[in-house]
Specification:
- The chain is α+β, with helices and mostly antiparallel strands and 335 residues long.
- It folds into four domains: 68 residues, Arc Repressor Mutant, subunit A (Orthogonal Bundle), CATH 1.10.10.10; 51 residues, no CATH class; 88 residues, SH3 type barrels; 80 residues, Alpha-Beta Plaits (2-Layer Sandwich), CATH 3.30.70.
- 35% of the residues lie in helices and 23% in strands.
- The strands form three sheets. Strands 6-5-4-3-7 form a five-stranded antiparallel β-sheet, covered by helices on one side.
- The radius of gyration is 28 Å and the shape is elongated.
Length: 335
């Protein structure tokens, strides 16, 4: 193999993918070979006719790079472990990535697919068929999100800029909002933006698929004082409070369960202070400090006759009223 081919191959290995760049001087010094910078420049001029290479703003003395759409195979390709990782990222995490990141990752996703299809000897290629993420609720298909809206929302969030949206609340007319984007979360296949309204600073949650327009502005987003997005999510402020209050005060939940539920809660606890006391061979009493959210109500209701709420009384009454309404709906004598 000629010295020129080896040198050009090394140049291709050195070049980064856009938006990172390398100048001819940087390439020359990193290679540490006995040729001039002008020779490196001529090599690049030849290579860009064959490979997906470019220079910043057409200035060949400036930075050189692989273009965003350059196939990964032009560079180092992907090892089987890397291909598997990108395959799992695409399957489970893409809704949470900003659009600009997804655009740069697309060549890696494509190459991962090619790599996994072409290799049959490694046991790793069977791994995606041996794992699954199971939602605790009825599985639903994700709603369709306009890609331009997703791009605007994630870019505004990434760059910490204010955002203007047109939004269709459930059961109401479309409204315009001026927002400070604060965070993005995924729940039951639906992507939500947490943001504060610019005029009132109220924290709100907006489903991306209900946005008909989203435009980032040039104004810097303003964060509420001491706001912590991870804390906000972990404290379940994204959920509704059954009392209708804005605060999420902790409650002392006390309820009776059968042995199956008791075993389940002994393995996956409701809270650190949870206690389970056996009543008899079939039932136990569970007490725990939890937050009074709508999710708690639906979770308890989902156990049906296996659970009886004792305290607090307001929650017991809500459960009783819901069961009464269901009983009337399913009254067999009426049908």
């Amino acid at each position: 193999m000629s010295e020129q081919i080896i040198r050009q191959f090394k140049i291709l290995q050195k070049l980064p993918r856009y938006p990172r760049t390398m100048t001819i001087s940087e390439i020359h010094s990193s290679l540490d070979i006995g040729v001039s910078r002008r020779t490196i420049e001529r090599d690049l001029e030849k290579l860009c006719r064959v490979f997906s290479l470019s220079s910043t703003e057409g200035d060949r003395s400036a930075g050189w790079f692989w273009t965003e759409d350059a196939p990964v195979t032009y560079m180092s390709g992907l090892a089987i472990k890397q291909a598997l990782s990108f395959s799992l990222i695409k399957k489970y995490l893409t809704p949470l990535f900003p659009s600009v990141t997804l655009k740069e990752l697309n060549p890696f996703f494509e190459q991962a697919e090619v790599t996994l299809e072409s290799i049959s000897s490694s046991p790793l290629i069977k791994w995606p068929n041996k794992i699954a993420v199971v939602e605790p609720t009825q599985p639903l298909l994700p709603p369709t999100i306009d890609m331009e809206i997703h791009k605007s929302v994630t870019e505004a969030l990434l760059e910490d800029l204010q955002l203007n949206i047109s939004y269709q609340p459930v059961g109401r007319n479309q409204q315009d909002y001026h927002l400070n984007p604060l965070g993005l979360f995924l729940r039951n296949q639906v992507s939500y933006l947490v943001a504060s309204k610019i005029d009132t600073e109220d924290l709100r949650t907006f489903a991306l698929h209900r946005m008909s327009k989203a435009e980032k502005t040039s104004k810097q987003a303003v964060h509420p004082k001491d706001f912590d997005f991870q804390e906000y999510i972990s404290e379940h402020h994204i959920l509704s409070n059954i009392t209708g209050k804005k605060s999420f005060e902790p409650i002392q939940l006390k309820f009776v369960v059968d042995n199956w539920v008791a075993t389940h809660l002994s393995e996956s606890r409701l809270s650190k202070d949870q206690q389970i006391e056996r009543i008899d061979n079939e039932r136990s009493t569970v007490t725990a400090t939890v937050q009074e959210t709508e999710q708690l109500f639906w979770w308890l209701l989902g156990f049906g006759a296996r659970v009886e709420v004792l305290e607090p009384i307001v929650l017991r009454e809500k459960m009783a009223n819901s069961v009464k309404v269901l009983s009337e709906k399913y009254d067999i004598k009426r049908t």
